[in-house]
């Protein structure tokens, strides 16, 4: 009896080690990538703290995720677990996009319950681990590009 309990305990521990690992969000067996957002060539007057709300962070615009200087800046890496994302660039706690319509986003630019997106990218390779997503505002349509 004692040997069978020891054997079952060992099997249970092995199964937990193999299948019980969580990612950084505490989710089991889910792929996620660390994404750094790089905004460049936006209006030079865009100095300050900005938020990057999107469907990957429940459209939270209350946190400063990027500081822009003369229209350029990089975010700290953000954990993203969806390969298709919508997002925007707004001042913290505000939905006003001071750069719009000077640079139109590639999304349909809808406003749903106060949530506006300007950028959409699909097919992020979450298995890549670390991704840099560059949004160049120098063109009429600012298209996110994975680098």
Give helix and strand order, one letter per element, not per position: HEEEEEEEEEEEEEE
> Got a strand count?
14
Given the C-alpha coordinates, what overall shape results? elongated
Oligomerization category of the chains in this entry: single chain
By secondary-structure content and strand pairing, the structural class works out as mainly beta
What would you report as the Rg, rounded to the nearest angstrom? Answer: 20 Å
Please, what is the average pLDDT? Answer: 78
Descriptive report:
The chain has 147 residues and is mainly β. The protein contains 1 helix and 14 strands. The protein has one helix at residues 2-19; strands at 33-40, 48-51, 66-68, 73-74, 78-80, 85-87, 90-91, 104-105, 111-112, 115-116, 119-121, 130-136, 141-142, 144-146. The strands form 5 sheets. Strands 1, 4, 5, 12 and 14 form a 5-stranded mixed β-sheet that branches. Strands 3-2-7 form a 3-stranded antiparallel β-sheet, with no helix packed on it. It is elongated.
Summarize the structure.
This protein is mainly beta.
Task: List the defining traits of the structure above.
single chain; 147 residues; five-stranded mixed beta sheet; 1 helix
Lay out the secondary structure.
Blueprint lengths: L1 H18 L13 E8 L7 E4 L14 E3 L4 E2 L3 E3 L4 E3 L2 E2 L12 E2 L5 E2 L2 E2 L2 E3 L8 E7 L4 E2 L1 E3 L1
Parallel strand pairs: 1-12, 8-13
Antiparallel strand pairs: 1-4, 1-5, 2-3, 2-7, 6-11, 9-10, 12-14
């Amino acid at each position: 009896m004692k040997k069978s309990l020891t054997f079952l305990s060992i099997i249970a521990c092995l199964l937990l080690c193999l299948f019980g690992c969580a990612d950084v969000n505490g989710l089991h067996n889910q792929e996620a990538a660390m994404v750094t957002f790089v905004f460049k060539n936006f209006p030079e007057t865009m100095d300050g703290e900005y938020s990057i709300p999107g469907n990957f962070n429940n459209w939270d615009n209350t946190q400063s995720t990027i500081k822009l200087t003369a229209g350029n800046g990089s975010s700290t890496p953000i954990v993203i677990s969806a390969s298709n994302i919508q997002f925007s660039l707004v001042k913290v706690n505000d939905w006003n996009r001071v750069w719009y319509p000077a640079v139109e986003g590639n999304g349909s630019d809808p406003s749903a319950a106060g949530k506006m997106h300007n950028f959409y990218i699909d097919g992020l390779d979450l298995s890549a681990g670390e991704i840099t997503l560059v949004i160049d505002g120098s063109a009429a349509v600012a298209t996110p590009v994975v680098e």
